[in-house]
Amino acid sequence: MSNKTLLAIDVGSTSITAVIAKNNPDGKINILGTGTSRSEGINKGSITNIEVASKAIKKAVNIARGSTSEVIDSSVISISGAYTKGLRSLGSVNVPNGIITETEINQVMQMALYNATIIPEYEVVHVLPIFFKVDDSKDVENPLNMNGSRLEVSVYIVTAKRTALTNVKSALKAAGIELTNFVLDGYASAISLLDEQQNKFGATVINIGGTTTEFVSYKGSAVVYNGFIPVGSNHITNDLSVMLHTPPNAAETLKIKYGNLLKLSDSDELSIKKVKIPRIGDEQSTTEVSLDHIQTIIHARVEEVLVLIKNKLKNSGIQENIGAGIVITGGMSQLSGIKELAMRVFENIPIKISNPINIKNGYMNFDDPTMSTIVGLLFYSLYENRTFELDSNKNLMKKAVKKEEIPVSQATKQTVVKEEKVSENANTKEPLEKEDTTRLPTLSKKDKGRGMSRFWSKVSEWF
Ligand SMILES: Nc1ncnc2c1ncn2[C@@H]1O[C@H](COP(=O)(O)OP(=O)(O)OP(=O)(O)O)[C@@H](O)[C@H]1O
Ligand SMILES: [Mg+2]
């Protein structure tokens, strides 16, 4: 395991968070410094002013640097799905020595990338395996050290508009930061949230921030889709400000203090409660507005965001396969009643509101939904025990082999069992056919009936 010092930066539209960290010898993440700054020059996931954004990034990074003298070896930054496109591809290679090593895994991933039709003005950010196939055994999760003569892979590729990436690089360069890797915001959030159970069955992770909503769908432990909507919690503030003629800071306070998506009953005292708010242009005078009215405005916007996500998932074919549930994070997930509203919108798909896995340290509270992306960036870069994948430099990220990892023969058996249990895998066609669409085939009725009821009861246990 590397013990290099990492600088991770989450460039959100509300705030910028920088963390300097490295791995302790025991494998735990050691936070050396943290810094935050108010976000400027960034809107809806894109850099709108390089100079201003660069200053804001530099401020957060300098605060983090203030608490450590360690030299930074590499840096990683989150990028928004605002300017990404996802596509699928396939690769296959011969295994000359009969045993699969990292060389063949790298070759097959590079081959899948080579076979993909990437739009000229786009660059690769991630090449993520959906499944490997060794000779005739399908759905191999980790082919390392397996015996076979042919290795195939099906991948999900995330690409991003070159100009948008160049703007991020320029802003970092102006702040004196050498960039190493880009990581998709939604993917980072998912890494920070999903536990082993969810990773086994798959889930859709939705990060609703200030001006963006990013989501990533997993099928089993593989990413199969990523999406984006340019709407977030700031839109609620804006709606309240415009409709109630109150300044944005008063609208933000109303949202945080009184935001509640659970319908108040008529007998509830709060339903007749009135709140005094300042008026735009004449802030000395106040008007009274009913709590019920405030909550109706908030409810309308949140419902709209959730319906937009649902439609995106539906149009990409993901919703048919979503069975494993939805995990919501990001600043807006703190709104009371969002779980109940999401359950209604997504028609009883299990919903969980989640904070990132807590990495305890004395500097910053990471047990907070606005920290999902930054925690994911740390896991992405410092934990090696994940999938084999190509990073934004097209380098293979290695998977650390754990001692308790299953031996070759058992590993093959296990994948067969898994296939029987969750038989909705869209990619069990044979032979592998090239697919360049992100639309997933839907579950057949027969398949749904067979494995799903057991699967559903399992899923409901942990949501
Ligand atoms: N209790 C709450 N209810 C609703 N919204 C909230 C609450 N607390 C914070 N927020 C909102 O969460 C947003 C900040 O969340 P977050 O830090 O996840 O966004 P960001 O990462 O900066 O933005 P983005 O991801 O869109 O670029 C702000 O709009 C803030 O008003
Ligand atoms: Mg964010």
From TrEMBL:
<keyword id="KW-0131">Cell cycle</keyword>
<dbReference type="Pfam" id="PF14450">
    <property type="entry name" value="FtsA"/>
</dbReference>
<feature type="domain" description="SHS2">
    <location>
        <begin position="6"/>
        <end position="193"/>
    </location>
</feature>
<dbReference type="InterPro" id="IPR043129">
    <property type="entry name" value="ATPase_NBD"/>
</dbReference>
<dbReference type="InterPro" id="IPR050696">
    <property type="entry name" value="FtsA/MreB"/>
</dbReference>
<comment type="subunit">
    <text>Self-interacts. Interacts with FtsZ.</text>
</comment>
<comment type="function">
    <text>Cell division protein that is involved in the assembly of the Z ring. May serve as a membrane anchor for the Z ring.</text>
</comment>
<keyword id="KW-0132">Cell division</keyword>
<dbReference type="GO" id="GO:0043093">
    <property type="term" value="P:FtsZ-dependent cytokinesis"/>
</dbReference>
<dbReference type="InterPro" id="IPR020823">
    <property type="entry name" value="Cell_div_FtsA"/>
</dbReference>
<comment type="similarity">
    <text>Belongs to the FtsA/MreB family.</text>
</comment>
<dbReference type="GO" id="GO:0009898">
    <property type="term" value="C:cytoplasmic side of plasma membrane"/>
</dbReference>
<dbReference type="InterPro" id="IPR003494">
    <property type="entry name" value="SHS2_FtsA"/>
</dbReference>
<dbReference type="Pfam" id="PF02491">
    <property type="entry name" value="SHS2_FTSA"/>
</dbReference>
<feature type="region of interest" description="Disordered">
    <location>
        <begin position="417"/>
        <end position="451"/>
    </location>
</feature>
<protein>
    <recommendedName>
        <fullName>Cell division protein FtsA</fullName>
    </recommendedName>
</protein>
<keyword id="KW-1003">Cell membrane</keyword>
<keyword id="KW-0472">Membrane</keyword>
<dbReference type="GO" id="GO:0032153">
    <property type="term" value="C:cell division site"/>
</dbReference>
<feature type="compositionally biased region" description="Basic and acidic residues">
    <location>
        <begin position="430"/>
        <end position="450"/>
    </location>
</feature>
